[in-house]
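Deliverable D4.2, example record:
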Amino acid sequence: MSDTSPSPLGLRRLSRLGLAIAAVGALIQLVLGVYYLAMAHSPAPHDLPVGVVGDTAQRAQLTEQLEADGAFAVEEYDDAAALEQAIRERRAYGGVAFAGQTPTLYVASAASPAVANLFKAQFTTAYQDQVAQQVEQLRTAGQAVPVETAAALATPPDVTDVVALPDADSAGSSLGFVIQALCLGGSIASLALGRLRGMTQRSTARGLGHAALLVVYALASSGVAMVAMALFGVGTGANHLELFGGLALISLAVTASTAAAVALVGPAGALVGGLYFTVGLIISGSSIAPEMLPSFGNAVGQLLPPGAGATVARDALYFPDASTTAPFVVLTTYAVVGLLVVLLTNAAANRTRSARALHR
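Output generated by the structure prediction step:
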């Protein structure tokens, strides 16, 4: 009977290969761990836009306090109505309007519950510091402290949630899950469709078929996402046609750009889809407001399909007055360029074969 056990040399090679795989796996974990922690271990505002309505002294004092460490970027508005409209258009996350000496806070929990809570806490602290200074000045001057001034130290300001989260999405986490599912599903679909490329030769017809499949998948992916959201009452008040189109474009941007990478560099191009999921999601703004990320993460995240997609989907869900031109341009660029690359690489291969045939 012949001995079929591995030779010592084979075992040594297998051990080296196993150690190399383990080392690469540990390195990837280290890089991703450092990246995730650098981006989101302690979210903090960076030039987060807020508004203020009040007299000159109130605006100046509040602006100085809120902008002191670069956390907020304060914009002045003529009245509370203008401030509310800015919030609906997502030009501001919130703000404060003074009626005499009485402030009212305006927030939008649908934009980010964390930001709404942070702004309430920051403003309340800043306002009570102002009141405390006034009380100290009166006491130093030997004057009586008005009852309403003393009460302001213990009474938080009124809060108006201009665009509140619905009860079905009270934590505001649904959007992150939807974007995650779209990116993961799109990455898997791109891998599966890419496997089909070896079954037929590249040709114009194959390129058209591949592009058509990507579009059909995007439409189906959007429909499935909306069904899942409807099962839990998420998005019931949204513009469904706009939401459907936005979700479909997100899916197409992911799948088409990944398919283009595969067409250009081969199977390794499928890593693009994996990068959207592992690298792009955390800086997408779907779970953490973009302005709460480091500046680099904010800028890059909004230039990737997950980030632009999160903005489009959130606005379709809760902010119909907001402008979505920039994120739509980003998504459309990924989708159109990806489809063109798929079509052109197949057509080019077809012409190359035809030219070779003519020269035989």
